Amino acid sequence: MKNILSKRLNAVATLIKKDKIVADVGTDHASLPIFLVKEGRAKKVYASDINKGPLKIAKNNISAANLNEKIDVFLSDGLKNVPKDAEEIAIAGMGGRLISEIIDAAPFTKSEKVGLILQPMSDSVTLRKYLYENGYEIVKEFAFEDAKHLYSVLRVEYKGECISPTEVMCRVGRLLDNFGEFERAYIEREIGKCEKKIEGLKTSGKETDEIDKEIIVKNELEKILRSREI
Ligand SMILES: C[S@@+](CC[C@H](N)C(=O)[O-])C[C@H]1O[C@@H](n2cnc3c(N)ncnc32)[C@H](O)[C@@H]1O
Fold first, then answer.
1. What one-character DSSP code corresponds to residue 107?
2. How far does the centroid of ligand 1 lie from the alpha carbon of residue 205, in Å?
3. Which of 12, 22, 150, 211 is 20 to 30 A from 28, alpha carbon to alpha carbon?
């Protein structure tokens, strides 16, 4: 069986350290675990999912690829049943809030030996806020496009330093470290969200405080983009 990863899962794979024990939480069809093992990039992989349906498909795909020895498949709500020797943990294709809840319910991720590779489909601001406030550091992040959708993927490690992030930090994360066309497009989209929110607040006659806050964020994001113009 040929296993071609989507651009999105490929982006996740690039942030997973090689030769480690990897867990893929919410594995669905087990595309990522199969890819990692076939490419010789993981020592062992745990593939878990909360739902029986996806897990059945995952098992079929793993058997078809003859990889039953290398990939352990099991039912798990988040990281609850995932063995604690997992060193690299991928949580992709879910909302940022759910991802933060999964991390929060698994204190063993508060270890410098664990790397988290997170790819939120929404609520990225909530996820980054949770990470900053709970001692997790975003060590790498980049934006990319897949099927005309714009995403970001984060590599996160626990450092134990809890900080109160600014709104701009939560919107941008570490995207400025490797600034390119997709990072620019991502921040432009954030500016668009600010504009929409400001409009919405104005038409609903909401408090000016909230509007002012959003205008400040928008201005800061625009300033960031201007400072990176060639
Ligand atoms: C949209 S799919 C993403 C699949 C794959 N990770 C990807 O990025 O393409 C989300 C998967 O997460 C699973 N899921 C949702 N909540 C979960 C949880 N709390 N713990 C484990 N898996 C979960 C769903 O059953 C589904 O298979």
1. G
2. 39
3. 150
